[in-house]
Amino acid sequence: xxxxxxxxxxxxxxxxxxxxxxxxxxxxxxxxxxxxxxxxxxxxxxxxxxxxxxxxxxxxxxxxxxxxxxxxxxxxxxxxxxxxxxxxxxxxxxxxxxxxxxxxxxxxxxx
Length: 111
Known about the structure:
single chain; 4-stranded mixed beta sheet; globular; Oxidoreductase
């Protein structure tokens, strides 16, 4: 079954994510939660262009996104951070995130 899913029985060290990158990802997400108010997580499923990601959105609409191995890992990461977590397929993206993106684009145009 693993072979059908493109996985080998023994992980290939050249393609496996480095432990340091996982630690850096978790560290970044922890810092985002620690330094912002009202952060919620949204797990994004993989698509043709991007792998599975976890998106953190603060009350202000500011956001950050990081890759995760799969959807289950995204939910586990969010729960370990102690924040609410949603599946973006069912909830969509929060309006505050779109508003923040629009404000950032407007700031860039004024510069």
